[in-house]
Amino acid sequence: MAAPADTKPRPKRTRRPRAEREAEILDAARSVFAERGYGAAAVAEIAARAGVVEGTVYSYFESKRALLIAVMKGFYEKLIRDTESGLRAVRGTENQLRFVIRRHLDTFTSDLGLCRVIIREARPDVALYDEAILELNRRYTGLALRVLEEGVASGSLRPDLVPSVIRDLLYGGIEHAVWRFVFSDGELDAGLLADQLADALLGGIVTEPARQSDATLVRLEQAITRLEDNLSSDGASTEPHSTRRDESRSPKVSGRRRSKREEAR
């Protein structure tokens, strides 16, 4: 006798939302790129970490290069948002530049793997850098450029500065300072290095702080002098009244003085 057919409805398999699957693939790609570098990264490993077959990755991204471009876009977009948000909470050109320097250095400690990919692999490949990073990096460094331009316009920074040159000096100096850290296993003290770089940079571009301090001291001295003059004037105006009161109290002495002068004549 044949077994009765199973009439229970089978549960339907639901597809993951495309955006959700894409985000999982990008997260996996970011991890693999950061750990192995772009050249050594394999799409098969990225697929395995995302929990999909390799063909699924190619249905979302046409190549490993396209994956890298998408990863870099996500990396820079977050960096730009965080930096913009931080700058809105900071007042003053000097403080804003210190924030930019510290935020950039923090990126090397929090996303060292991707920073290595940018410096070691993407930058030497001009075509890859131009396609994946150039415009994003221009937007990101443009935040510091805007702070510098506003500082010159407000008088906080020297009027003869070329903001684009100082922008390049800022980021070039940071990259040179962290070069050994990027390509070794050393530790980076982002706070200490940020203070050192900021002090060196700001010492040459802020508007003569010594002269501003001197001007403040001069104004204080002038105010003290005016106050002393006012006190002296008040004291002089009360002295004749005191003398007249003394003279009115001793008329005999005054009379004797007149008689002696007369005798002397």
Characteristic terms for this protein:
265 residues, Arc Repressor Mutant, subunit A, Tetracycline Repressor, domain 2, 11 helices, elongated, disordered C terminus
Blueprint (SSEs and pairs):
Layout: H1 18-36, H2 43-50, H3 54-60, H4 64-88, H5 93-110, H6 112-122, H7 126-154, H8 163-182, H9 190-205, H10 209-249, H11 251-264
Helix pairs in contact: 1-2, 1-4, 1-6, 2-3, 4-5, 4-7, 5-7, 5-8, 5-9, 7-8
Q: How would you summarize this macromolecular structure in one to three sentences?
A:
The protein has eleven helices and no strands. The protein has 265 residues and is an all-alpha fold.
Mean pLDDT across residues: 83
Q: Which overall shape is indicated by the principal axes computed on the Cα atoms?
A: elongated
CATH architecture of the largest domain: Orthogonal Bundle
- Fraction in beta strands: under 5%
- The count of domains is 2
Number of strands: 0
Helix coverage percent: over 70%
Which structural class should the secondary elements be placed in? mainly alpha
**What distance separates the N and C termini?**
166 Å
